[in-house]
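=== How it folds ===
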Amino acid sequence: MKWEFAGHSIDCSKPVLMGIVNVTPDSFSDGGKFFNTGDAVAQALKLVTDGADILDIGGESTRPGSEPVTIDLEIERVIPVIRGIRDAGIKVPISIDTRKLEVAEKAVDAGAVIINDVTALRDNPEIGSLVSERNLGLVLMHMQGRPQSMQENPHYDDVIAEISEFFLERLDFAQSRGVKPENIVLDPGIGFGKLLEHNLTIIAECGRFLEIGRPVLIGTSRKRFIGEILDRKVDKRLFGTIGSCVAALYSGARIFRVHDVGPVREAIEVAWSVLKSTRETPVYHE
């Protein structure tokens, strides 16, 4: 299965790593660490050196309880970083993590080729038209509720079935805007309106989303559920992140959005080598 956009064709039958660069003062795990443009570009270069296949740049935190920032402020944060990455000669695809059309447009003009929309086109349907017109990549993520209140009391009768239904509806909507299926990957939104048990079920059964026909992206990096399991603060969750990524790999996920590309890459490569060597092909192993 391939993810195709803007002249790129990413083979998602094998692991793909998306490295995170948050250009924010308040992201849950690294807020302020790469707020300076030079620091953010240097981090992007490090992530690529460590093995990132894609870079995901974000200028607005969507952690639980976060408040949205203005369009102008988000543009001010991310556009110099995207330009700096391109000026530094980094060639990997750049994803812009935004739910705002104006930010997405400016980011694409600066060199981004993927839009990672946590609202899956619900906040701004015109992002779908932009994706279609410019032949961009698109990440459709599931979120129950809004960032400000999504963790107050999330509830599902069947978390996998309900997210699958959401994906099917959002895929239909994106295609109504002219987006091609091969432009799209699906993110079940770990931690976005989910309790611990929901997150664990998603990781264990994320291969079921492959029945929809598109690759699955998982973003577990440093998230709260890891802290709940291990009783570790956010800066001590690397090993838990690795464990969750390997588990998701075996379940069927192939794209991993992470902060710590180097260590996760090594763990995923070993796990992938083992998975490929199995004589009985797992249900969701391609």
Remarks:
- Strands lie at 2-5, 8-11, 16-22, 54-58, 94-97, 114-117, 137-141, 184-187, 217-218, 255-258.
- Residues 120 and 170 are 7 Å apart (CA to CA).
